[in-house]
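Dear Dr. H.,

I hope your travels went smoothly. While you were away I took the liberty of generating a structure for the chain from your last submission, since the lab meeting agenda had it listed for discussion. I wanted you to have the full record in hand beforehand rather than looking at slides cold. The sequence, exactly as received, is reproduced here:
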Amino acid sequence: MRRLHLFVTTFLLIISTTFSFHITPTFFEKRIDGSGGYEEYVLKNNTNETVRYKIEFLPGLGKFGHMDKWVEYNPKIITIKPQSQSTLKVYIKAPKGTTEGEYSTLLNAKTIPVPKLEKQPNEVAAAARLGLNISVEIVGYVGDLAANLEITNLKINEDKEGKAIVIFDVKNNTLKRGVYYSVEVLESNGNFETTEKGRVGVGKTDKVKITLDKMKKKDIVGVRIRETETRREITNKKL
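The corresponding predicted structure, in token form, is as follows:
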């Protein structure tokens, strides 16, 4: 029974620790040549236990160039009290002469055991020594690569419940880099509803489908796309 209790406690701790890791934003998407790019990441601890992470930057995935050697960051160790948050400051600058294009790194957070009180059961202390190792890939770019997205095949439909559905394609014509983008569905009264759609890769096309709970089909006049990082308008299309 003691082993079963240890297993259950360990399993619950893993689940709790996994869901305790929250980071915003989840992207970088900045120009890293010239003066370089800077971002502040907020790590939140929504649990009732103190968590501690060792932060490292590792080589990115194979489809990008690597920028892990160009990263400066602080702090290296982050301790976050229960129901609190902390900030990680990240600066990335590519060496002079780096080829235009995309570069990535894995922002890696690895748990470090936090000392437990002696009165806690041994199985809880043992479970706390289990490591959690999480990586988030972030991408930057070199060169004057302004975002260029194209909206095509824009349609407005309704579902059986009368909810408006906006359907269209987003093609990435940006030279040598992907783009994180958000969609604004526009109403005739000047209001709009925003949806973050993520990242469309170089030369790729996203199939976008947005169901709107509050907007009526008759009131929708078009869509607008913004770059998620800068909020700059990239393009728009009217019906």
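Two observations you may find useful: The first strand starts at residue 22 and ends at 24. The CA atoms of residues 10 and 127 lie 5 Å apart.

With kind regards,
E. W.
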